[in-house]
Design a protein that fits this description.
By secondary structure, the protein is of the alpha/beta class. The chain is built from 11 helices and 9 strands. The protein has 2 domains: 2-218, TIM Barrel, CATH 3.20.20.60; 222-271, no CATH class. It has a 7-stranded parallel β-sheet. Strands 8-9 form a two-stranded antiparallel ribbon. A hairpin with a 2-residue loop joins strand 8 and strand 9. Helix 2 packs parallel to helix 3 and helix 10 (222-241) packs across helix 11. The chain is globular, with a radius of gyration of 21 Å. The model has no long low-confidence stretch (mean pLDDT 96). The chain binds glyoxylic acid and magnesium ion. Residues 103, 105, 129-132, 144-145, 177-178 line the site of glyoxylic acid.
Length: 279
């Protein structure tokens, strides 16, 4: 997935001009079949509705999603849903063509994350925004989303888990936001491991150098991929051949829950083009 930004990486004096640049970029650049998203400005600015009208109205055909930052409550998502419907109707696009990614990056957004994740059928992804979240919490840090050595544990553990549960309960993809120290690939790997281990689907890359690290951490290893397949095979043989719901797989017991865990590895791996090792 790639996203183009109209929000915090664009200076206020450039906001209006940036819309046209984004429309041209969507139309003219070779995006192949990747999921394409534009981050618009939040509802607490004066730019949101015009961002949607101009970008979706002029380049909506190739656009897959709009990302709404600083989502505070379900009504923020519902308002975007309604606006998108009108713009789609006026542009000859099928209603529902544009999906929504919602960024949770404020204390109010986190408190309301459960209702936010259930707010619209257009929602595809929920994204944590560590930098704005650190600011919203008034944490005494100057870089959001990096480890704080003075804190005994992971200061974002509760936040990560809460967002992940709300997202999964509503069938959404769950993504961690940016790692701002671009050159610190070891720190990035450490941070990716935290959310990947909890179950997140991925993390933003701000720079091409971050892509390899992120892909490596969030994708299953070949060993995990092969083992997941072997569990699926063994479990199918047990349930369909032997009519058993639980069997031994090596030195551990597997059952229906093991199948569900294995499916996740196989689906993620296959989506990235992995194939099962021979033998
Ligand atoms: C991203 O938008 C962030 O605030 O971390
Ligand atoms: Mg932000």
């Amino acid at each position: 997935m790639s996203f183009l930004d109209l929000e915090d990486s664009v200076a206020p004096l450039e906001k209006e001009a940036a819309r046209g640049k984004i429309v041209r970029a969507i139309r003219d650049l070779p995006w192949d079949d990747r999921v394409l998203c534009v981050r618009i400005n939040a509802w607490d600015t004066r730019w949101t509705y015009q961002d949607v009208i101009e970008v979706v109205g002029s380049a909506g055909e190739r656009l897959d999603e709009v990302m709404l930052p600083k989502v505070q409550c379900a009504a923020d998502v519902e308002a975007l849903d309604r606006l998108l419907t009108q713009v789609e109707l006026n542009s000859g696009l099928p209603v529902g063509h544009i999906g929504i990614e919602a960024q949770i990056e404020s204390t109010r957004g986190l408190i309301n994350v459960e209702e936010i994740c259930a707010a619209s059928p257009r929602l595809e992804t929920i994204v944590f925004g560590p930098a704005d979240f650190a600011a919203s919490m008034e944490m005494p840090v100057l870089t959001g989303g990096i480890q704080i050595p003075e804190y005994p544990g992971d200061h974002f553990h509760y936040v990560f888990s809460k967002i992940l549960m709300a997202g999964r309960a509503n069938g959404l993809q769950v993504i961690d936001g940016p790692y701002l120290k671009i050159k610190d690939t070891d720190g990035l790997r450490d941070y990716c491991l935290r959310t990947a281990t909890l179950g997140y689907d991925g993390k933003w890359a701000l720079h091409p150098d971050q892509v390899a690290v992120i892909n490596q951490v969030y994708l299953p290893t070949q060993e995990q991929f092969d083992r997941a397949w072997a569990i699926l095979d063994a479990y199918r043989e047990a349930t369909e051949g032997e009519r058993k719901g639980a069997v031994m797989f090596g030195d551990e017991m597997i059952d229906e829950a093991s199948r569900k865990m294995a499916i996740k590895f196989v689906t993620r791996g296959e989506r990235a083009g992995m194939v099962r090792s021979a033998g």
